[in-house]
Design goal:
about 325 residues; globular; 8 helices; alpha+beta; six-stranded mixed sheet
C-alpha cells in the first residue's frame, strides 16, 4: 500500500523578506508564511548561526590578548572604549566591564554613560557580534535602564566594525566592583549587599607592566601567573618545550610552568608561584622569561627527544575553555 503523503499546508500569512524574520518558538508557525514550523523553516538558519563557533572572536581588535584575559581571567576590570563613529549625542562614555550587576549584558546609567558587560553567556557562537548588538542597543536605551540579552542578527556588525581601529585598550583592574555604582561608599540595602557578595568572591588580580597580557593572581594556597599569548599554538608549545627541557621555563625559585589552556583561539601558559611572591616580585622574572621565549620561538631546529617529552607533558596538561 502506498504511503499517504502529508498534505502541504498553504501559506496563511504574508511573505516576509529573509532578513526580517522574527524569532518565535520552535513549534510555532514560521512568520514567513510558509505554513511550516519555525524549526523546519527559517529556524534552521537561526540554529546554525547560534551554534557556529568563531574561534578567535576578538581577532583584529587592539590588544586581543587582553580581551581574552578580561573575558576569562580577570574578576573586576574596566576599559574605556572608543567608537569608530564617535560617541552619540547624550552618551558621554562607553566602558567595557568584566561583569555587571545581575549579570546584565549592558547598562545605561542615568548620566547616559554606557557600561558593556564582557563575561556574560552569549546566544550565538560569535561573541564579537553578540557584544556589538548589545552595545548598539545600549547606546539608544533609556538612561537608567539595563539592556536585556537578545539574539543578534546573523548579518549584524561585530565589535571590529563598531570600535575605533586606532583606539587603545588599556584595562584598569579594580579590587572590587564599586565601579557598578556612582556612589559606592553610600550604597545601602540590596545594592550594598550585592557589592559585598561580589567583592568577597573576587580573586586579587594584577596585570604585569613589563610584558603584555600577563596576569598575576593570589589564591589561598599559592599564587599564579596566567599569560595570554598570541603566538601560533604549535610554535609556542615547541618553544616552551625547549625552555622546559633546558630548565629555563620557570620564573625563579619554587616556581614552575604547570601547563596551559586555550581560550578564544589563543594559548595561555600558567605558572605556579609561591604564596608570598607578589605581582611586583614577578615583573623582572617575566621580562627575563619573555626574552628567553623569543629566542626559543626563533629556533627552527627539530625538537630533541628530551624536548619532545617536555612538549608531551605540556600538551597532556592542556585544557580548552572556549
Amino acid at each position: 500500500m502506498a504511503k499517504k503523503r502529508r498534505p502541504q499546508t498553504k501559506a496563511t500569512g504574508p511573505q516576509v523578506a529573509n532578513g526580517e524574520i522574527p524569532v518565535v518558538g520552535a513549534r510555532e508557525p514560521c512568520p514567513c508564511g510558509s505554513g511550516r514550523r519555525y524549526k523546519a523553516c527559517h529556524g534552521r538558519e537561526a540554529a546554525h548561526a547560534a551554534t557556529e563557533l568563531v574561534q578567535r572572536p576578538f581577532e583584529g581588535l587592539a590588544n586581543e590578548c587582553d580581551w581574552v584575559a578580561l573575558r576569562e581571567l580577570v574578576p573586576a576590570a574596566t576599559v574605556e572604549l572608543a567608537l569608530a563613529d564617535g560617541l552619540p549625542e547624550g552618551v558621554p562614555s562607553v566602558t567595557l566591564a568584566t561583569v555587571l550587576p545581575m549579570a546584565w549584558p549592558a547598562l545605561r546609567r542615568d548620566s547616559g554613560a554606557v557600561l558593556l558587560g564582557l563575561q556574560n553567556d552569549t546566544p550565538s557562537g560569535d561573541i564579537s557580534r553578540d557584544l556589538a548588538d548589545t552595545l548598539r542597543r545600549a547606546l539608544t536605551a533609556d538612561p537608567g535602564t539595563p539592556v536585556a540579552a537578545e539574539r543578534a542578527p546573523g548579518d549584524g556588525p561585530r565589535l571590529q566594525d563598531l570600535l575605533d581601529p586606532k583606539g587603545t585598550f588599556s584595562p584598569t583592574l579594580h579590587e572590587g566592583f564599586e565601579f557598578w555604582v556612582d556612589d559606592a561608599a553610600n550604597a545601602t540595602g540590596e545594592v550594598a549587599a550585592s557589592l559585598e557578595r561580589a567583592n568577597a568572591a573576587a580573586i586579587p588580580t594584577a596585570r604585569l607592566t613589563g610584558v603584555e597580557a600577563a596576569y598575576w593572581c593570589e589564591t589561598p594556597e599559592k599564587n599564579h601567573l596566567r599569560w595570554v599569548m598570541s603566538h601560533p599554538e604549535e610554535k609556542l608549545l615547541d618553544a616552551l618545550a625547549r625552555l622546559h627541557a633546558a630548565g629555563a621555563s620557570s620564573l625563579g625559585d619554587n616556581t614552575r610552568l604547570v601547563g596551559s589552556f586555550r581560550a578564544h583561539g589563543l594559548t595561555v601558559p600558567v605558572w605556579d608561584l609561591p604564596r608570598g611572591m607578589s605581582a611586583e616580585d614577578t615583573e623582572k622574572p617575566a621580562v627575563d622569561l619573555a626574552e628567553r621565549l623569543a629566542e626559543a620561538l626563533a629556533s627552527d631546529a627539530p625538537l630533541t627527544p628530551e624536548q619532545r617529552r617536555a612538549r608531551g607533558g605540556l600538551t597532556n596538561r592542556q585544557v580548552t575553555l572556549s
